[in-house]
Amino acid sequence: MPDGEVHTLQAVFREVRPSEKLVFTWRWENKPAAGETLVTVEFRQLGESKFSEIILTHEMFPDKRTRDEHGHGWRACLAALGHTLGDDDFRMVLRFDVPPDVLYRQFATEQGVRNWWTAFCNMEEKVGGQATFRFPSSKFHAGMIITRLEPGRVVEWRCIECQHPPESGYMDLSDWAGTNMRFEIAGDGEGKSQLTFTHAGLIPLECERACRSAWSFYLNESLRKYLETGRGSPHTKGA
After folding, report:
1. Which of 92, 130, 146, 222 has CB atoms 3.0–4.6 Å from 232's, for a disulfide?
2. What sign does the CA torsion over 165, 169, 175, 176 have?
3. CB neighbours of 159 closer than 8 A, spacing ≥ 6?
């Protein structure tokens, strides 16, 4: 583990369906107070393509802090797995207790993006429109073209230019250029939604680790907080 300690996990498989599904219990030997939780891993082929997706659900946590700690760990593990398997795209699958049209507006409109990502956003809300996202105190900005808008279903941006700060140490300070961000939304018919976020081409980039962490914070924490309480944690700090 990163902290240098040895953590022993105890698990009992409850369901094993080759190439389809795994269900197993999860208990830390050295953290009995955390109790036993449950992990479900589903494997699905994406249409008739050669690509597959993993839907991982870890539930029955005793509190939000424990849930969030495990969430960070799983996202790092799955990103590393994708890189090992030769996938250049970073993906997250998240579920929200809001209908698809509400979730869609958070990516398709200027105000929506300001709710959870950055207050420094300007967007032409149409296919072919330009959008700029600035993070002044972090000295980062990105310019996008909106390439796809399907109400309640899909929003897609293509990065045409970006700038990391020189002090980042990256060799390529414009490495987002040419990558794509896709927000795919599916409703469950009961007023809830699933978001599949893909940053295509992120994994090979120098900024991959920092950007993966940032996407995880803004989508799983800031966006979730906004949808649950009406107040997210977007970037608001000026230069």
Report:
1. 222
2. negative
3. 142, 143, 144, 176, 177, 178, 179, 180, 181
Query: d(Cα 55, Cα 44) in Å, to the nearest integer?
Result: 8
Amino acid at 201: G
Q: 49 burial class (0-12, 13-18, 19+ CB within 10 angstroms)?
A: exposed
142: which 2 tokens? 């990105």
Amino acid identity, residue 17?
R
Q: What is the pTM of this model?
A: 0.69
Integer-rounded Cα Rg, in Å, for the chain is 19
Q: Is the pLDDT of residue 31 over 80?
A: no
Among 3.30.530.20, 3.20.20.140, 3.40.50.2000, 3.40.50.720, what is the CATH number of 9-89?
Answer: 3.30.530.20
Q: Where in the chain is the domain with CATH 3.30.530.20?
A: 9-89, 92-229
CB of 197 within 8 A of CB of 94?
yes
DSSP 138-155: GTEEEEEEEEEEETTTEE
The CB density around residue 5, as the number of other CB atoms within 10 Å, is 7
**pLDDT tens digits along 117-136:** 999 999 999 999 999 999 99
Q: Can you name the CATH fold of 92-229?
A: Alpha-D-Glucose-1,6-Bisphosphate; Chain A, domain 4 (3.30.530)
Strands (E), the chain: 9-10, 13-17, 21-28, 37-45, 52-59, 90-96, 120-123, 130-135, 140-150, 154-163, 180-187, 193-200
Instruction: State the Cα–Cα distance between residues 220 and 229, nearest whole angstrom.
Output: 14
